[in-house]
Amino acid sequence: MGSITARIVFSGLCLALASAGCKKAEKECKGKGGECSWKDPGEGSEKSGLCREGKWGEGEYCYCGYCWVRPKPCDPTDNCKGKCSRKSPGKGWTSTSYCDRETGCKCWEEIVIPKQCFQDPTCNLLRRGTCFTKPPLAFGWTKIGGCKSKDGSPKCNCYRWFHATIGPIEVVA
Predict the structure, then answer these.
(1) How many Å apart are CA 106 and CA 128, to the nearest integer?
(2) What are the two backbone dihedrals, phi and then psi, of residue 143, each rounded to the nearest 5 degrees?
(3) How far is it, in rounded angstroms, from Cα 39 to Cα 124?
(4) DSSP 33-84
(5) How high is the pLDDT of residue 21?
(6) Cβ-based neighbours of 77, under 8 Å, separated by 6 or more
(7) Residue-wise pLDDT tens digits, 72-110
(8) Which helix (H) or strand (E) holds 32?
């Protein structure tokens, strides 16, 4: 019984020290426009690092939760022909560039995949490509092999989108 009481008192002491000892971390997080919390405060908040104080191995080292920041909205730009967003709008979209690199907003364009093309798992999973009957018209697609046909589907080739300056781009399919 005594050890349970000691654990409860120690836990309370740790929580008190953590809440009192994180003033500097809270100030840094507020400087980013965020707040320190263990739980997501909602309203579209995203994690922007840890709230912590002290040096490991030197006195007290406290974790005070995560720094939750409400990011700026992604505004559409003239050079983006799709949707401007931090995350993919869903299946069938690929990131082609940044709308705003500072805010992490990417330009997502919809991939139109002909229904008659069988999506060969070797192309999709192993090569991270997409099967097309004809080369995609968008700039940056490169043929990386062939696709197996199934049930009389036409001959298709495997294409992967490569960005000129940052290399291969993941296609969310």
Answers:
(1) 20
(2) -70, 130
(3) 37
(4) TEEEESS---TT-EEEEEEEEEETTEEEEEEEEEEEE-PPP----TT-SSEE
(5) 63
(6) 84, 99, 100, 107
(7) 888 888 888 889 998 888 888 888 889 888 888 999 998
(8) none
